[in-house]
């Protein structure tokens, strides 16, 4: 993948409410990070004390400073060494800890690995007007591109999510697709209502799905009936290292008298089951390919709607993706 291109993007690494009085470790594109809240402000720096290379995420916060757990060195939000316990109180010769751009927006802490990239919100990660949001954080093993493809691929649902999303019987849809510089959108108009358990419990007559991807890792799916916008699911894939990723999921519900915690509590077990099933097949596919078939090319079909768009966005010198239209049967 084009790692340098991916470094020049912002990623939501942790919900703001989870960054409290302890440092938190995260990994982004192989970079070890520590997130910390100092004097009320979120900060991000290299997760390594310059003294003996102990992870700073194993330390603690003392009087608005990040203290290393090994020898007590203390750092401010800019990574500057403020205190060397048992030595100089202001160690000008000590190496400062590298820091990374960090800001809070829409209840998340966002980080970029390159200093000159302005922050721009991702509209598809946010709740539509009149909606409220519940957040969840998960981790997956597998190939980053194929994990995103899986999220946007309807053709596997009859097999991986049998009974949950689809039962036997014909289901078809009309598709149309468009792309732009940073991503693409696929529009699905359903000819038959989906008939799995989740649909029987939560589907109020959904006839349209809009699925979109925005570089470097944001996917979202909107669900519509003829008269209303029913749900939005947004997920930001966080590339931790080769073969591992974080998945920050947001489920957006229309505001109603029904409290959000209860709505999410009812919906969450089904969402968790879908994620378990997808995680298992993505992990299996990744390890089987890597260990036994790494030199064998994949085969693709006309129903593989998004892979060429993804390869163009993530790999250098790949041709632009081709937008698809027509009818798809599952």
Automatic annotation (TrEMBL):
Q: What is this protein called?
A: Rieske [2Fe-2S] domain protein
- For the Rieske domain, which residue ranges apply? 10-111
Q: Which PROSITE patterns match?
A: RIESKE
Gene3D superfamilies annotated for this entry?
Answer: Naphthalene 1,2-dioxygenase Alpha Subunit, Chain A, domain 1, Rieske [2Fe-2S] iron-sulphur domain
Alphabetical keyword list: 2Fe-2S, Iron, Iron-sulfur, Metal-binding, Oxidoreductase
Instruction: Supply the source organism for this entry.
Output: Neisseria sicca ATCC 29256
Q: Name one GO molecular function term.
A: oxidoreductase activity
* Annotated TM spans: none
């Amino acid at each position: 993948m084009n790692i340098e291109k991916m470094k020049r993007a912002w990623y939501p690494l942790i919900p703001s409410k989870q960054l409290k009085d302890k440092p938190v470790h995260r990994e982004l594109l192989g970079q070890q990070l520590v997130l910390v809240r100092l004097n009320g402000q979120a900060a991000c720096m290299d997760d390594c004390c310059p003294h003996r290379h102990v992870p700073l995420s194993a330390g603690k916060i003392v009087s608005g400073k990040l203290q290393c757990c090994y020898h007590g060195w203390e750092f401010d939000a800019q990574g500057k060494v403020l205190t060397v316990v048992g030595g100089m109180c202001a160690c000008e010769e000590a190496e400062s800890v590298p820091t990374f751009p960090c800001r809070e927006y829409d209840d998340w802490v966002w980080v970029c690995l390159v200093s000159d990239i302005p922050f721009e919100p991702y509209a598809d990660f946010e709740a539509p007007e009149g909606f409220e949001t519940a957040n969840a954080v998960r981790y997956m093993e597998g190939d980053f591109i194929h994990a995103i493809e899986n999220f946007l691929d309807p053709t596997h649902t009859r097999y991986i999510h049998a009974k949950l999303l689809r039962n036997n019987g014909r289901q078809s849809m009309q598709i149309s697709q468009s792309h732009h510089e940073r991503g693409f959108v696929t529009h699905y108009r359903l000819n038959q209502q989906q008939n799995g358990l989740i649909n029987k419990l939560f589907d109020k007559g959904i006839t349209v799905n809009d699925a979109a991807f925005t570089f470097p890792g944001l996917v979202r799916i909107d669900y519509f009936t003829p008269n209303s916008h029913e749900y939005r699911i947004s997920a930001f894939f966080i590339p931790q290292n080769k073969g591992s990723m974080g998945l920050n999921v947001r489920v957006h519900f229309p505001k109603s008298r029904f409290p959000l915690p209860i709505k999410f509590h009812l919906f969450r077990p089904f969402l968790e089951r879908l994620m378990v099933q997808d995680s298992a097949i993505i992990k299996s596919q990744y390890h089987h390919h890597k260990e036994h078939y790494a030199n064998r090319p994949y085969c693709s079909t006309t129903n593989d709607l998004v892979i060429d768009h993804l390869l163009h966005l993530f790999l250098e010198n790949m041709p632009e993706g081709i937008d698809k239209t027509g009818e798809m049967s599952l």
